[in-house]
Amino acid sequence: MDMSVFVHNIDLNGLDLLVVEDDAVSLLLLSRILIKHGARVATAENGNEGLLKFQGQRFPIVITDINMPGINGLEMASQIKALDQETQIIATSANRETDSFIAAIEMGFSDYLLKPIEIEKLLMAVKRCGAVIAVKQQLENEREKFRTVVECLGEGIVIKDLNYRILYQNRAMTEILGDRTGSACYEIFDLDEPCQDCPTIRTLQDRQTHLACRICHVNGKIINIENSASLLRDSRGTITGTVEIIRDVSQRVKNEQAIRDMAFHDPLTGLANRRLFEDRLEQTIAKSHRYGMKFGLLYLDLDHFKGINDTYGHEAGDLVLVDAAERIKLCCKRDLDTISRQGGDEFCIIVTDCGNKELLCSIAEKLLEQFARPFHLTSALVEVSTSIGISMFPDNGSVMKELEIASDMAMYAAKKAGRNQYHFAEQ
Q1: pTM for the complete prediction?
Q2: What is the DSSP letter of 265?
Q3: What is the C-alpha separation between 125 and 91, in angstroms, rounded?
Q4: For 162-198, how does the pLDDT look when each residue is reduced to its tens digit (9 = 90+)?
Q5: Which residues make beta-bridge pairs with 243?
Q6: Domain boundary among 225, 253, 281
Q7: Other CB atoms within 10 Å distance of the CB of residue 221
Q8: Per-residue pLDDT tens over the stretch 321-346
């Protein structure tokens, strides 16, 4: 192959170079050759001048003689590298001693050309430097695109090392949990060691993606976060840590809770609805069977409630039902008991582990006392009493249907006896 043709085809178009050479003839020759091949060239006649020019304009490629008066090429290159580590530096020297080669290598020189310089080797060295710069620029562009995308995401992105320390977090993560860079992830939850069932640990153990939900206290608020962890590997495939997605799912949790409330609670009074009541009753029956305990079931029906709706309207009737629910709750404060609105003006109470009738009588009497007080409507005071029927497990039944029928019959017996009283189911 004709080397002159090969050299002629080397294109350095767009490259900015600084050539530092104390020999004026060599400086002129080098600059002309490089300009001829498309490079933009600045020159300096010694290390001091070269350093000043580099400080004024950060050249991506510097070609420098090693042996110069004042600051020599190695000293100048050292200061340039301190200013910009990415600068590509090509050394030219008549010195063939090994120490010079080693010093250039240790300093990160891109090439070392012996004088007299072969033009094709010089051009190829510059071409290689240009290629390295282009690759690095392309990589930096891709990194910038990645950073832009990651910073624009609405979800938090976190990179952790193998010791669970946060190396990087995006803007969304900062907005959710504050700047935690440098902290161990478990410190977010005010812990001294990793969380139980931690998705980061599980991912590092089995190499699979794992997800978990956590509750955090941030700036006096409680938030729910969802954390998804995946492995992070370097270019050789070595695991270096994890990359994780952090989401604030507080609104979703709130919505899910609202859906559960709608499914299991009466929208007017907030009490358990028929569906939740039956589930709790089945659980109470099963537990009482297992441990040989007794429990009571109270059915309440408001006396003459229809007259309130007919006289004052349904809005007034709703006010009475809400107030009635609050009065019932005052009489049944144990967390293990269940109060429900069955529909209309009918309420039920499950009194667990009651032992005997004394507790049930006490509750029933408190209920009658509460309902003895008048109900305040917008424009009137109304009297609303209640009739209460009580059944006991297992005396009046061992399954849900039997207990419900027994309580219902006892409630109608109370109404038949004159209302505003309670009756126990007959055995």
Answers
A1: 0.53
A2: B
A3: 10
A4: 999 999 999 988 888 888 899 888 887 778 888 777 8
A5: 159, 230
A6: 253
A7: 8
A8: 999 999 999 999 888 899 999 989 99
- My answer on whether 167 and 227 are in the same domain is yes
Inside any domain, residue 259: no
> Does 24 map to a domain?
yes
Which pLDDT does position 45 carry in this prediction? 94
Same domain, 286 and 377: yes
The answer to the question of residue 161 being in a domain is yes
**CATH number (domain holding residue 320):** 3.30.70.270
Rounded CA-CA distance 425/394 in Å is 12
Total domain count for the chain? 3
- Residue 261: inside a domain, yes or no? no
Number of residues assigned to the chain: 427
Specify whether the CB–CB gap between 358 and 366 falls below 8 A: no
Question: How many CB atoms lie under 10 A from the CB of residue 397?
Answer: 19
Rounded Cα distance, 86 and 77, in Å: 12
CA–CA gap between residue 245 and residue 159 (Å, rounded): 9
Q: What are the residues facing 239 on neighbouring strands?
A: 233
- Rounded Cα distance between 316 and 323, Å, is 11
- Please, which residues have CB within 8 angstroms of residue 228's CB and are 6 or more apart in sequence? 199, 209, 210, 211, 244, 245, 247
